[in-house]
Structure formats: C-alpha cells, structure tokens
Specification:
14% of the residues lie in helices and 48% in strands. It is mainly beta. The protein folds into six domains: 153 residues, no CATH class; 168 residues, Jelly Rolls; 86 residues, Immunoglobulins (Immunoglobulin-like, Sandwich); 124 residues, Sandwich (Immunoglobulin-like), CATH 2.60.40; 74 residues, Immunoglobulin-like (Sandwich); 92 residues, Immunoglobulin-like, CATH 2.60.40. The strands form twelve sheets. It has a 15-stranded mixed beta sheet that branches. The longest helix has 26 residues. The chain starts with a helix and ends with a strand.
Length: 759
C-alpha cells in the first residue's frame, strides 16, 4: 500500500471509532447549498473528514467543484459512509493481525486478496459508489479473516526427531500403542513417543535444531513437545527422563531455542549446551552440568549448578547443594596417534581419587556417532580387541561414589594396523646344500627394515636399507644355519640353510656367493683352482688361471651356472651357481588421493608388482600379498610422500605423491556496506575482503544485515570478484524497515569448506 492509501485508511478508522452509533445516524442528510457554505466544512461536519468533499461531489453526480451552485440540493450519505468506514476499518485491523501472524508468507493468496479489495473499496468510495465500496470492504474483511486463521494454523508446526544411531536393542512406543516395537536407524520419532534402551544398548536422538541426546543402556525417555514457529524460526522441545542415563548436546542456547530435559517432579532452566540427566532406582534424579549454568528446582527448593558441578534430587526432597564433578583421568595408553600392530589394544590411565569407576567409549568416528564399545572399568587398565584395522577414537569420564558422571576427556586417536604378514626376508648366501671348503661362511641377504634379525639365535644388525652381511665359523660336517626376522607385530619369517663343511682338499674355491640376485647382466666369478685342475662351465671346458676372475654376460631371468673342477685323477667337484638377473624395477600402484584435504588422517593404499621392500619416506611399509594400507597423519601445508619399492636385485622405484592439508579458515580482513542507514526500499551493497593462505577462497559466501531493531537479519549471498580480490553482495531492504545498518553475520569459506565467520 502507498502512503496516501495508509493515511486515508487511518482517517477512516478514526471516523469509525468516533462516529455515533448507526441507530443515531440518519441514512442521508438533505441540505440546500448556499454561497456561505464550504464543501470541506460540510464533509468534516457530517463525514468526519474535510478530505471527503470530492466524494460528496461524485455522490451527487457532480464532476468538479465549479458545477456546485448556490441553491442546489445536496444529499450527504451519512449512514452508508459510516457502514463503509466500519467495514474498511474491520478489514484493516484483521489484516494487521494476520500480517503479525505471518500471513504474508503462510497465507499469501488470502492476504493479497484482502489488500486488493481494500484498495478497490477506497477507489469505489472516491468515485461516489458507496454501496459497492461497502460490499468490497466487507469482502476484504472476510478475506483478511481467512488469512488470519490460516496463518495461525500454519505458524506453529509439530516436528519430529530421528533416531540417528543405535547399538543393541532400542525400542519405541507411540502414545496409541500398547506394546513396544523395535526401531531402525533414521526412524522418525514424534511427540509423546517413548524410547527405551535395553541392556548393553545405546541410542542417539537428533532433533531438527541440531540438538542431540544419547541414551545409555537401560534408559527410558519420553519425547514431549516438539514445535517449530516457521515465521520466527524458533524451536521448542521437551524431553522427560523416566529411567537411566541421558546425555544432552544442545546446538544453541536462549534466543529462539527452548530445549528442556526434565525428570518427574524436577524443573530445569537450561543455560548449558552439554549436561547429563540420570534417574535411578528409588526415583533419584542426578543432573551433571558440563557447560554454562542450569537452574534446578524441586519441592520448593532451587539451586544453580555451574560447569562441572552436579546436584541430586531424592524423591520428595529439595536439590542438594552443588558438588564438584571428578575430572577425567590422565591417559597413559594409547598415546596420541599411536600405531598398534596387534589386534589387542591396551588402555591404561592414572587413578582419580574418590573414583567409583571409569567409563571408556571407543568409536571409529571422531564425533562418536557410532560407538563400538562403552565399557565400565573399575581399575586403571583395559584390553580391547579391535575388529579391523583403521583409525579409532576414544574418550573417558570418571564416575564418583555418589554415581555422578564427570566431564569427558579430550578425544584421542590411535591407529590399528593389524599386521599378520611375515616380514620380508631374503637370504642370498650361502646356498642351501652348499659344500664349503673353509670354516668361514658369509651369510648375506636383505630383511624388512626395523625387523629384528637373528642368525642361529644371535642378534645381527642390518644396514639402513635392510641389507645384512655377517660371517659364521663352521664346524666340520653338516650343519644348519637358521636366519629369523621378527617385525613390530611379532610376525616371524625364518629361512634355513643346510651346509656341509668339507675339510678335505678342494679343487675349486670361490670367493663369492653361489646364490646371486643382481640387476647387472655382467656377473664376475672370482676364485682359485689347484694346479692341473680342469674346469667346465655347463659342461663346456674353459681355461682359468689358478687365481681367476671371469666375467659372465647373462640374459635377464633366472638361470643356473654349474662349475665342475676335475683333477688329474678324475675326481670331480661340482659347484652350482644360482643366478637371477633382474633388470626390471617394481611397479607401484597407489589408490588416488585428493590433491588437497582438511582431514589430517588419511589411508595410503596401494600395491607393488612383485615382492619388494617398501618404504614411505625411509620408513618400512608392511605388505601382504604385495598390497599395503598405511595410516598417515598429514602436517599442515604441503605434504610430499615418497613411496619406494626395492626388489631383491636392488632395482628401486619411487612414486611421489603430494597432498595439501589445509585446516585453517580464511581470514576476514575488512567488511563494509554502501549505506550506514536504511530508510526502506533501497538496495545495500556490501564488500568483504578476505584472504586464505591455503587452498584458496571459495567463490561464494553469506552475510546478514540487521536494520535497526529488526529481529531477523536480511540474508544475502557474497560472490568473489576475482579481478578486485573481494567478495561482493547486495540485499534489498523492504519498505517500512529503517534504521542503522549493521553487518550481523559473515560466513566465508575456502575451497575445502574451512569457514571463517563473524556474528
């Protein structure tokens, strides 16, 4: 409506209020117009407003004031004008009430029709058609009444919660049902519905405002009121704890959110976002608060419990004085991000004075939406069997002798890398079944880095690449050499070599191993032969000096070279050489990782084309069937991951991966709007400067402007202007809204979703 229309409407409402009753008002007044009379004065005298002089002209069939001459008779429609004013006033008042209830959104068709009819009624009145004007005003009142009723019906809506998680047996019972039913995850829960958990069971209930409650085992709660005002965007919910233990996590406090958790006979006023309500046998209620304050009233008594305080309400008694809750224990194991190779995870913590027991919770998710274990432990140690390898999180709280649960500890992460694969172990010398002519034997090979190595039970050190080379003293005759590797998960690999130390004179002595794995095609044979000894290689005679060095050029692959030394008496000594020429480096395949992330913990998964020693930045990677999965904790910024595979021949391949970890939100450096004050009806442009030192800014953001005393900020979208390096956005200020312009809300994200906000 325009200003002129509103002014006229107000005058008509005033006239309706001060006019005498219709029973005292004649339907019309007949007068003879004289030169001394004023038409404005007549309109004010009989119709309550001098501005109705033009309507009087039109009603009497006159087009302009010059047409009115002294001596003419004028009919003043006092009765019909009063009825018109009353009908229009009623329509305007009803429309005002409807708009206060949100009819502009909830009953737009009806309120728009009411406004159109009011405008039409005034236009008809101005043209002197009072009967039609009165009918239009009456119809406008009817449409406004429809809008009012529909807005009231739609404004407050019942909403539902959902069962967001469950472990074990969780049941619900609707108000009309006589028996309990099993629940399913994501199931809707409505007003007056009961939810209970049985033994060794847990449940999570998520409300539409983001608040959440967790029911521990053997708990019973009733969901009471759940209402949402769709105009004010307010939320109201009430939960009553009848039995057991309920932990609440509220999304916000005060303002437009009213979330109450009570027990029978106990009233609470909550200014806390996290607290626990417990109701035990004998109708004893305990409330433990972990944030803000809670007023607790029962049996004409009232206390206020602050953060990390609790109060107990026995049946028929007042709340006890606030008492301090016990803090969580200091954790000794697992340490932060500790890696376990065994399926058994040892938990250990320091004792807390006056503790009755400790509650340990373990989950595969940081927010504990899926709790794998919730264990009550009276001591300071607990062993848990991990179901599969991966990242896990745990937290604890302490329960005192009065059954009050203290606050949760920080959340700690640990890694279970269940390794059942034997460590890599390769022995290249001596060959199994070798006949040795000297007491000294070289034991050479390669072992998985960081694995413990023993030879015949004695510890042996390997170098940085896992290679080992040591010498044993043999006794004459046949004997066994046992080489054993044990990794961090206590997996064992063992290789045995049967050798024979022949103390008789040898025809051929080699100064080299008889088992060779190499990445070179040329293999050098070194050794010594006795005088007059003939030598054959693969049954082909060759000429060798007594001290010889002979170079073989071999193709790639596995092959056996057999040396025969033959004395003048035709005694034969056979020395087989097992040689593998491997010129091909192993191939590494890694499951693709994102180039950037805001999650610090990722799993590196891949495979290698052949048996090889694997390392990640010089740290050994355990592999099973040439496949590997290893948890990695990224550091902030760019991470360079070098995965190297080295086969027994020494061929190596390195695959380099790069990942950017960005957990830092952008920085909002400046925000300004085009107008400091709004009068209504204008467009206000805002400009926000922000910078991000990581992945870069997102293309859009959000902002909200408060105009004067308005409760609901005007919401707008910010768009990144790449050329100017700033975010730009604008909002339209509706008419009638005026006042100082304040940036009430800013939300800027980077491309990974890290958000900077101002409120």
């Amino acid at each position: 409506m325009n200003k002129k229309f509103i002014t006229l409407l107000l005058l008509l409402i005033v006239f309706w209020a001060v006019s005498p009753a219709s029973a005292e008002t004649p339907e019309t007044v007949e007068i003879v117009f004289t030169q001394e009379m004023s038409l404005r004065a007549l309109a004010e005298q009989y119709l309550g407003s001098p501005n109705e002089w033009n309507m009087l002209l039109k009603y009497n069939g006159l087009e302009q004031l010059a047409d009115l001459q002294p001596g003419m008779s004028l009919t003043i429609p006092t009765g019909s004008f009063q009825r018109f004013a009353q009908a229009l006033g009623q329509a305007a008042e009803t429309a005002r009430l409807a708009n206060m209830e949100g009819a502009g959104v909830l009953s737009k068709t009806n309120i728009d029709e009411a406004n159109r009819l009011q405008t039409s009624a005034i236009e008809l009145k101005n043209s002197g058609k009072l009967a039609e004007a009165e009918a239009a005003a009456s119809e406008a009142a009817q449409w406004a009444e429809k809008a009012l009723n529909e807005a009231k019906a739609k404004k407050i809506q019942a909403v539902s919660a959902i069962l967001s998680e469950k472990e074990g047996s969780v049941q619900n019972r609707k108000p009309a049902d006589s028996s309990w039913a099993d629940t399913t995850v994501k199931q809707d829960l409505n007003e007056q519905e009961r939810v209970r958990t049985l033994a060794a069971s847990l449940a999570g209930i998520l409300f539409t405002d983001g608040s959440k409650i967790n029911l521990n085992e053997n708990s019973l709660a009733v969901i009471g009121t759940m209402k949402e005002n769709v105009i004010r965007r307010s939320f109201q919910a009430e939960v009553t704890v009848l039995q057991g233990d309920v932990l609440a996590h509220l999304s916000a406090l005060g303002g437009k959110k009213d979330f109450t958790i009570n027990a029978p006979g106990v009233d609470t006023t909550i200014r806390s976002k996290k607290f626990r309500t417990t109701r035990s046998e004998g109708d004893v209620t305990r409330i433990a608060n972990y944030d803000g304050e809670i007023d607790v009233a029962a049996n004409q008594g009232k206390v206020t419990i602050k953060k990390d305080e609790g109060t107990k309400i026995e049946k028929g008694q007042k709340p006890t004085a606030p008492k301090k809750l016990l803090l969580p224990p200091v954790m000794l194991s697992p340490t932060v991000n500790q890696v376990f190779f065994s399926a058994t995870i040892p938990f250990e913590w320091e004792a807390v004075s006056n503790a009755a027991f400790y509650q340990l919770e373990i989950s595969p998710t940081r927010d504990f939406t899926n709790i794998l274990a919730s264990e009550r432990v009276s001591g300071t140690q607990y062993a848990w069997q991990v179901p599969q390898q991966g990242v896990y999180y745990y937290r604890m709280y302490t329960v005192d002798n009065d059954e009050f649960a203290g606050p949760f500890s920080d959340t700690f992460a640990f890694f279970a890398q269940i390794d059942t694969s034997a460590p890599f172990l390769s022995v290249v010398s001596p060959a199994d079944g070798a006949v040795l002519l000297t007491a000294d034997v070289a034991v050479r090979g390669a072992v998985e880095k960081e694995a413990a190595l023993t030879i015949n039970g004695q510890p042996v050190e390997s170098d940085a690449n896992g290679n080992f080379d040591t010498t044993l003293q043999l006794k004459p005759g046949e004997q066994t050499i046992t080489i054993t590797a044990t990794d961090a998960a206590r997996n064992v690999a063992s290789v045995q070599r049967q050798v024979f130390y022949n103390t008789a004179a040898q025809l051929l002595t080699l100064d080299m191993p008889t088992q060779i794995v190499t990445n070179q095609q040329q293999v050098t044979l070194k050794g010594e032969i006795r005088p007059q000894t003939r030598v054959e290689m693969n049954d082909v005679p060759i000429e060798l000096p007594l001290q010889f060095t002979h170079v073989l050029t071999l193709p790639e692959g596995e092959q056996t070279v057999t040396l025969k030394a033959i004395s003048p008496q035709n005694d034969v000594q056979t020395v087989p050489l097992h040689i593998i020429v491997d010129l091909t480096p192993p191939e590494i395949t890694v499951k693709e990782l994102p180039a950037s992330t805001r999650e610090p913990n990722v799993n590196l998964t891949g495979s290698v084309s052949e048996s090889a020693a694997l390392t990640l930045d010089a740290n050994a990677i355990p592999a099973q069937n040439n496949r590997f999965t290893i948890p990695i904790t990224l550091k902030e910024g760019e991470n360079v991951l070098n995965v190297t595979a080295t086969d027994p021949a020494g061929n190596a391949t390195t695959k380099t991966l790069r990942m950017l970890l960005d957990t830092t939100p952008p920085e909002i450096t400046q925000a300004a709007c085009s107008l400091p004050e709004a009068k209504g009806g204008e467009i206000i442009a805002c400009e926000v400067a922000a910078q991000d030192r990581g992945i870069g800014l997102a293309k859009t953001g959000k902002f909200g402007l408060a105009i004067g005393q308005t409760e609901q900020p005007l919401q707008g979208v910010l768009t990144l202007n790449q050329a100017k390096g700033v975010f730009e956005g604008s909002v339209f200020v509706p008419p009638k809204i005026s006042g100082r312009v304040t940036i009430k809300e800013l939300r800027i994200q980077d491309r990974l979703g890290n958000e900077a906000s101002r409120f």
